[in-house]
Amino acid sequence: MAGPKLGKKSGSKLGKLPAKKKQKKEPLPAKPLEKEELFSDSEGTDGDFQEDDEQEINSDSEMSSDIDDPFAADILGSGDADDGSDVNSESNADSDSDADDNDLVRKSKAIDDERKREEEDNDLELQLNIKEEADDFRLPTTEELEEETQRPPDLSNLQRRIKEIVRVLSNLKSLRQEGVTRKDYVDQLKSDLGSYYGYNDFLIESLVELFPPVELIELIEAFEKPRPISLRTNTLKSRRRDLAGVLLNRGVNLDPLSKWSKVGLVVYDSQVPVGATPEYMAGHYMLQSASSFLPVMALAPQENERVVDMAAAPGGKTTYVAALMKNSGIIYANEMKESRLKSLTANLHRMGVTNTIVCNYDGRELPKVLGQNTADRILLDAPCSGTGVISKDESVKTSKTAPDIQNCSQLQKELILAAIDMVDANSKSGGYIVYSTCSIMVEENEAVIDYALKKRDVKLVPCGLDFGRPGFIRFRQHRFHTSLDKTRRFYPHVHNMDGFFVAKLKKMSNSKSAAKSSVQSEEVEGAESIENSDQQDSEEDDDKHSDKKGIANENRKLKEELAGDKKRKRDVQTHSVKKGAGQNSGATKNGKAENQVVATKKREKKKPLPREEIAKAREEKRKALREATRKATMKNK
């Protein structure tokens, strides 16, 4: 009987265990526990839970002692463990969070303290540097300079000294060293700039003469950086908006160039080579620097005109002119170097230009080939030293010298005179010459334009560009024409484009020296008018009174009388000469020769009368003729 009872009891107990376990868990939710923890210590709550568990376990002691099933034991043990672990995990989580907060506060304080220490150290170091280097800056002595030449160049020291010299020159009165002149600082600055940036003495000296020290450093730093890549939309084949959309889809990051250009785009970066896209191959755009837009914009060619580009390769400006002319008219694209003709013709074909004739002549000979006074507009992008594009060609830093600049200037003067001779001053829409260089030298820019103003009858007109610095009217010992402020200069550190110069001239007359010729013609007319005044007045009177025979006869009589008077005077002069010759028969042939020389000298010394006297003489003769005609008419009546 005991066996079955035990089995029945054990079975009933095992069947009720899950229900009891669930009942235990239901009256112990998490929320009441949290409230008790808020109002009491964690240790007291743990003890209360343990007492409740012991009472429940004792009530079922008979069942637990008789259970041999490991599964049931596991269920009971797991329930107890769960109940205890929930409470312990919550208390442990609170303690861990407090510890983590304390650690974060401690670490943040340590970081703040370290930052403060670093800032204080930096301030102290800066103050020490200012005291040692800035306030007490002194130029190096000759011995120190000799030691520097023997050692490799210390670039950091050179850079520091350049900055200090510029700072001193900006406020020389208060910062200069005693006994040191401005020339000493400038000479040291030239030397340091040449050795730090790699310029020769001539170019550095030229730049120092052009710019103040602060701006000079900005210019040289700008030369060390490349200019942004720019594109020009070919309006013969595309529009800027359409081209920008296509290139953006190809991974080209670009924007419109600026407000002054309607066809330019600037490229920041690209995932594809910009010079090898299908659009480039199809001639939808041209890779062209922003400064190359300016001469064509100043030229402003019109449709159906005759335009000459005297130095056309590689064709960027020529294709821009053709696009503005919409392939109408005629463009003569000349290039002296035969090796550059291939790139010129290739770009013309790629861009779809059909109104251009390519020729290969020296620009100075073009007036003989194309004829004088035959073109409406001339674009002369003259060959130059390239001092404005050092960022593209760093060899300019050391290769250019004073003779090179003089040779370029002489060539440019000859080219601009040839360009002026080709332009027709009587053109209805043109008569303009645009001169441009990629140089910033005064000898290649303002001096050339001033020379052209003196040699030809031209004047400067505004370029039509809203930006750019005006050209120099005076530079050191040079004094130029006052209208040179209409020319424009562009710099990389100011306009973020290559150094450039643009001037626009208007031809006033087709004579090569109109100003001088007008003065000379006035003098010649004045001299001839004295000799021919009688004949001109008589011819005018004959024309006016040709219908009146009596007046004509009277005029003839007056002329005959005047002619008789002249003959009588000549006879008297010859008679006196013969008489004097008879009296002075002993005179030698040398004496006669001397008299002839004196007479010729007197004739040479005679100067033409001023215009006022000429006008008075004419008026007197006219009055005499009028009086004579009046008397003649009175007699006939």
Strand content: 5-15%
Number of helices: 25
Q: What's the gyration radius in Å?
A: 51 Å
Shape: extended
Distance between the termini: 193 Å
How many individual β-strands? 15
Search tags:
637 residues; alpha/beta; nine-stranded mixed β-sheet; four-stranded antiparallel β-sheet; 60% helix; disordered N terminus; MeTrfase_RsmB-F_NOP2_dom; RNA binding
Describe the structure.
- With 637 residues, the protein is an alpha/beta fold.
- Helices cover 60% and strands 10% of the residues.
- The protein has helices at residues 2-25, 30-39, 42-59, 61-66, 70-135, 142-150, 155-170, 172-175, 182-197, 201-210, 213-223, 240-249, 278-281, 293-299, 316-325, 341-350, 366-370, 396-399, 402-422, 446-455, 492-495, 514-544, 549-583, 589-605, 611-636; strands at residues 229-233, 252-256, 264-270, 285-287, 306-309, 330-334, 356-359, 377-381, 432-437, 458-461, 469-470, 474-475, 478-479, 488-490, 500-507.
- Helix 15 links the parallel strand 5 and strand 6 (330-334).
- Helix 23 packs across helix 25 (611-636).
- It is extended and about 145 Å long.
- The model is unreliable at 1-51, 56-85, 514-551, 576-594 and 601-605 (pLDDT under 50).
